[in-house]
Amino acid sequence: MSVELSGWGRYPVAATDLLQPASAQAAAAMVAGRTGAIARGNGRAYGDAAIGEETTVSLLGLGRMRAFDPATGWLTVEAGVTLAEIVAAFLPRGFFPAVVPGTQFVTVGGMIAADVHGKNHHRDGGFGDHVAALDLMLPDGTRLSCSREQNAELFHATIGGMGLTGYILAATIRLIPVETGWIRQRTLVAETVADTVRLLDAAQDATYSVAWIDGLARGAALGRSLVYLGEHATRAALGGAQVPYRFGPAAKAGPGVPFDLPALTLNRLSVAAFNEAYFRLGAAKAGPERLVGWRPYFFPLDGVADWNRIYGRNGFVQYQFVLPAARSADLLPDLLDRIAQRGSASFLAVLKRLGRGGGLLSFPFEGHTLALDMKMEPGLLAFLAECDRLVAAAGGRLYLAKDARQTRSTFEAGYPGLARFRDIRRRYGLEGRLASRLSRRIGL
Amino acid sequence: MKTVLVVGGTSDVGRAVALAYATAGWCVQLAGRDGPGLEREAADIATRTGMAVTTHRIDILDTDAFPAFADTLPALPDTVVSVVGLLGEQARAETDPVHATTVMRSNFEGPALLLGLFAERFLARGHGTLVGVSSVAGERGRASNYVYGAAKAGFTAFLSGLRNRVAKRGLHVVTVKPGFIRTRMTAGMKLPARLTAEPQAVGDAIFRAAETRPRDVIYVKPVWALVMAIIRALPETIFKRTKL
């Protein structure tokens, strides 16, 4: 069945055959003989990473859990199980995933393929660092158990490997014990980008840290931000209001975005007004610690259904790069100033401190990562190409799970593990068999 | 701890029913034909809920084996839910009596005899709940699926009669008419969104009707009661000229 598919950013849109196996056995039968194929989870990669060059294999049908050991926290699930399902099943039993990205509507397979990071990357590494084993299927149907001991090379290439090393069918991942579903949050106000970087660097001991930057502020306020630090709250830390809801308040269905907003809704004025209000409200809460539920803390945008429609029918791209820690102080002000000057309608930019990377093509390394949304409009691609040059020259790289437009040369400059990755692909006979729009674009 | 037996446990609806019961703290006996498939669903339900789930092989066409099947269950369940069904192909059933027989036996004979057998054991014990998933297709025979519809009509009548017989003796019998459900059985069909339920909604509705707010006959989506009332009310002279 041929369909038009896009990623979460709704740019680009491409035609592909879509296969939807209901089990691992069915998947093996379906992919046999296919070329230019890639696995797809819940479609939350922003760009074209999960659109097959010819064929896209939805693994949402592989949605079964297999086993959980409460003594160790190891959970084995099929690749199509979503983070939301894991949290729903295990938070009430006192367990939370060791690493979570900014949305819970992602699959385990997708999180491994993108080696997603959370607000605790500086301390705990990426999602891939908490994977003990993988059940990987090669395009010819061969199934391999991969771990740090077994098929180790393939294991390290698969973490962050964007689905290009095989189909992840199942994985064993670590959950950590938590006493409650609440986070003790401290808010710090940073008046400049230098302050922001300094506060994040000083917070290496905090379990979670993240800065929300006002991407439109300029001049003296350039890079002003709210830095949020968080710790899992113990049972004893809960106040009277939270005690009946030990694992966080019940989910409320949030507002949705029922249709594509006309392009006018998002303009420099409305976004600037939003950012100003956001910054002031947040700054007013600075100082004393507050208890925040796990949903708004980890997954603030999940409450707004289909928020990707805010950017209109042409979609948007998310621009996320990481810069080496030593270069951030020089380069971030320049990049932020360009973005603010252009006035691209980005609500809030997110700045995080990253630690050491895990897999061969994993995005994170020791440094600072900035992520912001930009509405797709004329001139944007040229503008971002200019930003790419600065990032690449400084030894930075772009996040493949968010990417929809970087060039092959930007990619090659940023990922030194590429030669080994290509070599592994060649040796396992994966070239041509597994290919996405992303891999074709950047020559992966 | 209460126990539910779900027959047809590897279907989308069977899985949803089992999950609804396990989430509410019930032990689950999952029964069906496909051994590896049952193991996969059982592990899923046990992992998600922490409840005990056992698996049991049964072929709904092998009616002679039913007593042995019931005898080997680790415990007589408190509730039995049959979600077994086979849509089949109407066009094929019109000319292929073997296929027609399979459709009829899968939707009527097998499920009715199995629930009938558990009814006797429940009566001996003094309590129990029996849930049969039938179909709105059983309310009026239509050109597009009357072999399936006739079998479901038979099953609906059986459940109604069984209820009439055992209601005063501590047993609860529920007839479920789900309407369209988004499942593997209906994959690729164009289904009207307002009339189509997700499997989990069906599972939750069955749990409510059987355990928390007892009902005799439920449509999962209430709009179906209206739709079927209209379809039943059409005089035959008009109905026979429609394309349904």
From TrEMBL, chain B:
Keywords: Oxidoreductase. The keyword Oxidoreductase applies. It comes from Prosthecodimorpha staleyi. This is SDR family oxidoreductase. Belongs to the short-chain dehydrogenases/reductases (SDR) family. CDD domains: SDR_c. InterPro entries: NAD(P)-bd_dom_sf (IPR036291), SDR_fam (IPR002347). It holds the Pfam family adh_short. One of its GO terms (molecular function) is oxidoreductase activity.
